[in-house]
């Protein structure tokens, strides 16, 4: 998978993204698999880091944050100094001489509190866009983890189905041997061949779904699937959450999305303050200089240039409109606060749901791996042994084989559901969740 990395912007969220990547997956590609062979295929953390370095959605969020920072730097400027020049087309003759040129310099002095309010509002919006960037990083991380583990599931399903075909082939050899000695019928062989064909077809379907999963994983990373996408063979870890619920909810209350609501509400409140202050009168000061030509020599101060200092007060007349703008900004601030409360309620419900799902998938996976699958394998071996010894039936072999297949596929599905739920939990909390592995494969 080729991708043009944008390392120049990666350091802007080193602290945040480092914390996010700390829980980026439940598997570690650097670790060894159960057979002791290091995994060489990319891990989920690899794809998460690749997405965080160059995903178009993150690039968009980053550029918006960058634009907001520039807007904040340019917000609330002091009014420009106005310099004007005038030329007397008809010169005014005065006692001291003719007036020929006029230069004026004026400056408006707004209320400093209004400039500070505008500065603060722009700064709050920049904070909101930064939190939006961080929330986008959390969403991208979860999407990559989901796509990665779904692709792993299709690959694992294909492997399990292939192993089941091998088991059926073993039983087929036994059935053909029994047919050769007349202790079994050709129908048994046909039923086994039919089941093997069905399993091979399911394996082909799993491979087709895996190709779709490659496209989805590439899309979640933000690149085009120009070459096959590989995943490590290491299954997701099954962990138990060790943090109390209150700690997770406290972290969720500081989630970037919720802080974004706070920052936007604060920006609207400061907008309202700026509108209120704008309704106050403002002061304008200026200096005029008039160039005067030489007049009668006998006149005192002949040719002397007059200098005029003037002041003006600007009184806003649209008081009702300015008050309406302030009320509109306050209403928008209350809207953001209400949206924050609604988002927190939804996040709390989501965390509770995912905690239950994480615990249930961990329990079910442990049950499949430690109890049901070993029992099904032992039963399958016993039934096949009995069939090879002239007892039992093909129907019993196929029934146990299908049950074993169901358990093994369900184990892979449950592991993926656990990993996806864990990734969703970390997105809802806004940071990695502390857990412990209670058993290993």
So what's the overall shape? rod-shaped
Q: Portion of residues in helices?
A: 55-70%
User: Can you tell me the number of structural domains?
Assistant: 1
Mean pLDDT over the residues: 86
Instruction: Count the beta strands.
Output: 6
Poorly predicted ranges: 1-39
Fraction in beta strands: 5-15%
Strand order of the largest sheet: 1-2-4-5
Can you tag this structure with a few keywords?
about 450 residues; alpha+beta; Outer membrane efflux proteins (OEP); 4-stranded antiparallel β-sheet; two-stranded antiparallel sheet; rod-shaped; disordered N terminus
Explain what you see.
The chain has 441 residues and is an alpha+beta fold. The protein has one domain: Outer membrane efflux proteins (OEP), CATH 1.20.1600.10. Helices cover 64% and strands 11% of the residues. Strands 1-2-4-5 form a 4-stranded antiparallel β-sheet, with no helix packed on it. Strand 1 and strand 2 (98-109) form a beta hairpin. Helix 4 (112-180) packs antiparallel against helix 7, helix 6 (245-252) crosses helix 8 and helix 7 (256-278) packs antiparallel against helix 8. It is rod-shaped, with a radius of gyration of 37 Å. It starts with 13 loop residues before the first helix and ends with a strand.
